[in-house]
């Protein structure tokens, strides 16, 4: 005790610090014991009624299920790619314009419809209605967004609308 007295340290402080350290160590030991007990219980539940051979069979079964899931995933990815490739040739852009072709009293019974693929290939169908002469229907091919025949103003309008639109048909009245 002479050493502590020479350093000017009260022995009661050392006893208190050692007591606090002992209490902390006891708390940590209890927490670790409880954690180890939980892990032992989990292991016993997992291994309950299992021997090494049946556990190996269960693992092999799970691995075969994983392999089957991987195979199905690869097959699904291939199908998605196939659908995407086919979708490029489907009509995706639409537009319609209604108008009065002959400025008659019959109203807006004439129309032009444009249907385009993602690459702007497709057609324009125009139907011109006349109360006196009947109805005329024309189709014009569109390649890469361009028509190689003369287009009316309404057909130009419907083509431009379809080229700038994606899957949203709209009717102009």
Query: Residue-averaged pLDDT, rounded?
Result: 85
Quaternary state, please?
single chain
Which strand order spans the largest sheet, edge to edge or round the barrel? Answer: 5-4-3-2-1-6
Count of DSSP E strands? 6
Count of discrete structural domains: 3
Would you give an account of this structure?
- With 173 residues, the chain is α+β, with helices and mostly antiparallel strands.
- The protein folds into three domains: 1-48; 51-87; 93-172, no CATH class.
- It has four helices and six strands; from the N terminus they run H-H-H-E-E-E-E-E-H-E.
- It has helices at residues 2-7, 11-47, 52-87, 153-163, and strands at 93-99, 110-116, 122-130, 134-143, 146-147, 171-172.
- Strands 5-4-3-2-1-6 form a six-stranded mixed beta sheet, with helices on one face.
- It is elongated.
- The model is unreliable at 168-173 (pLDDT under 50).
